[in-house]
Amino acid sequence: MSGIESVRPSPTVDRVATDARAAAFTTRSIKKEAKRSGLELVISMMDLTTLEGADTPGRVRELCAKAKQPMVQAPCPPVAAVCVYPTLVPVARQELSGTGIQVAAVATYFPSGQATLQERLDEVRRAVEAGADEIDMVISRGAYLRGDLGFVYDEIASTREACGEAHLKVILETGELQTYDRVRRASDIAIAAGAHFIKTSTGKVSPAATMPVTLVMLEAIRDHYLRTGEKIGMKPAGGIRTAKQALHYLVMVKETLGDAWLTPDLFRFGASSLLNDVLMQLEKLRTGHYQSARYFSLG
Amino acid sequence: MATRKIPARLAVRKTLKMYSGGAFIRSESGRVLPLSAGKGEPVVNVPEASRKDLRNAVVAARKAQTGWAGRTAFNQSQILYRAAEMLEGRRESFIARLAATGGRKADETARREVDLAIDVLVGYAGWPDKIGQVFGGTNPVAAPFFNITSPEALGVVGIVAPATPPLLGLVASIAPVIAGGNTCVVLLPAEASLIGLELGEVLATSDLPGGVVNLLSAPQAGTLAHLAGHADVDGLLATAITAEDHREIETLGAETLKRIVVLPEAPGMDQAPADIVSPYRMLSFLEMKTAWHPIGV
After folding, report:
1. CB–CB of A290 and B55 under 8 A?
2. Would an 8 Å CB–CB cutoff place B258 in contact with chain A?
3. Rounded percentage of chain A residues whose pLDDT exceeds 90
4. 8 Å CB contact of B229 and A289
């Protein structure tokens, strides 16, 4: 058996129970020291992202500076990675070499993925050549929705091959898959086809990451781990804007997968505006005063 | 035909809520302060504003600020005037409540206070489109430049309303601040909470965008300190506070260079509206912007 036939059948997802379970994670109260270490962990797990048509080398350099030193008021860990379009990978590579911060590139004709497989794989290879450590690919939602799951499996497997040494994150774009059952099936396919990480969204489609969708994906990761012992990473992206939301996600990860996943190697946040909110909360904990966005650099 | 007894009508009791971010909310803490609404009146539960209510209110005020300052001066005037219209429409209700709080029947003092509050709103409604002409202007400079100064809103202003007179003191604090394009977060002392929260209902029906005025009632101890230390609050207007509170807000406010104005007392009931309404009250929370524009050559 090869390809899609090798992927085991996926369990069905109980929508009501999933929503209720995800909502239960938002009621925890995390304060003081636990909050501070949680927030620092959030920063160290962050893929600081800029994916705009208006991105310039200057904008990417600005973001890299922010990634290295998120704030000046107090010591603070650097972020995990900077995520940019493939054409801007050389700029990020140059700024970040020697820092330990990864360069992630969205490839495979992000965000739509509407191009021939050959073109998409070429883009992946070029991004890796330019110095990307991580590749965020999009699956063909069109193929998925018309039922051609074999095509989706094969494109993920060949992208993994094209990545070489680089890590592969597979974006399911859950907002376009519409049901939890499809999210679960797509997660299982991506994991079987060789994804290092599975990721919710491009951030260009609404709804982006939600807690129930992330929970479904975490459960796919958990089932795969229990069966094979292999740890797959998770990256919710888009729509996570506040420190409080980020802490809710950490609670969910801990209670679904355990402490082993509370590391940047296995869990990331794809975000742009989240960072400053986390920094404001950290400053509030340090000084005791509520903060203003104007005292924090853009980025 | 048997006569049918008409049952006594059930009273429709009202829950007073805080007005914050354009919505009527209970305190996030769930706490209330039982207050007497006057002699013989039932006790009323007023929400006790917590630190987190304050935080949320400042977020709402910050979000609303640019939009409010960006409205045309004429539109700001219309909205302030509409607030006066709405207050006029609820005149009798305010008079009764003011009198009852003082343990009296509707009387001349309560009537006078409501009248003054309405007139103060109308007075400030006239100012948004004139303030720039009074405090701005062209400046003579010895260079080929056209040099102009115009006042702009400061941003988010924290207000500590006086306990008495509850309505006039509150209106005279809020009106000059919002007429200048600022948004505000108001701490209502417990004694003035009943009137203050009712004023929230007036403001909500005045086309005032949500978040421009945020009214927090009966704040818990320490809330004032959090307001004074909040980095996203640009100015603070407090009326008739203790020397101890004054020292505390000056100390905390210094860290973020807050503009702090402390008035020794609220406007008196013997004053005329024209004595209370003053562009200088607005000036406290305006920033002067000066621009140099090259000419000639």
Report:
1. yes
2. no
3. 96
4. yes
**Topology of the domain covering B45-294:** Aldehyde Dehydrogenase; Chain A, domain 1 (3.40.605)
**pLDDT at A2 (0 to 100):** 67
Q: pLDDT of B48-83, one tens digit each?
A: 999 999 999 999 999 999 999 999 999 999 999 999
Known catalytic residue at A136: yes
Which secondary-structure segment (H or E) carries B176? helix B166-179
Put simply, the answer to whether A289 touches B232 (Cβ < 8 Å) is: no
Catalytic residue at A235? Answer: yes
Report CA-CA distances (Å) from A83 to A156, A158, A162, A205, A271: 20, 22, 19, 17, 9
Task: Using the predicted structure, report yes or no on whether residue A3 has a pLDDT greater than 90.
Answer: no
Interface check for B49 against chain A (CB to CB < 8 A): the answer is: no
Q: Where are the domains of chain B?
A: 45-294
Please tell me the class of the A31-285 domain: alpha beta
Strand ranges of the sheet holding B18-20, from the earlier edge strand across to the other edge: B23-25, B18-20, B213-217, B183-188, B156-160, B235-239, B259-263
Tokens of B189: 């002392």
Residue A27 CB burial class (10 angstroms; 0-12, 13-18, ≥19) = exposed
What is the phi/psi pair of residue A295, to 5°?
-95, 10
The complex scores an ipTM of: 0.83
**CA nearest to B226 within chain A:** A289
